[in-house]
Design goal:
2 strands; about 45% helix; two-stranded antiparallel ribbon
Length: about 110
């Protein structure tokens, strides 16, 4: 069934607009449960043979995924390592300074000096 949508009226002086016919949205059918079908509970995965045992299948799939990984170059790794070291030192200095300031403040408030 199609639904009729009227476009906005143009200011050209035409008093009659032409309706636009659009198709009705598709009816969504509920998906079948995983237990349905010829493959059983696992669906299509049940028919795939990954290896002799689940462990060998796991390692084969892991190696296949590792081959797809884009590894950084040596220069990129060096640059990122330097950035991490610099930020770690800067964070340590800031936190050490705050610790010193708060320790002095607490000592002053308690009257240890």
């Amino acid at each position: 069934m199609a639904r009729v949508v009227k476009p906005p009226v143009a200011p050209t002086g035409s008093s009659r607009s032409t309706p636009v016919v659009r198709p009705a949205p598709a009816v969504r059918r509920p998906s079948q449960p995983a237990t349905a079908g010829r493959f059983g509970r696992l669906g299509a995965l049940g028919s795939q043979s990954v290896g002799n045992t689940p462990i060998t299948g796991f390692f084969r799939e892991s190696l296949a995924e590792l081959k797809k990984v884009h590894w950084p170059t040596r220069e990129q790794t060096t640059q990122m390592t330097i950035v991490v070291i610099i930020f770690s030192i800067a964070t340590g200095i800031v936190l050490g300074g705050l610790d010193f300031v708060f320790a002095q403040l607490v000592a002053f408030l308690v009257g240890a000096r």
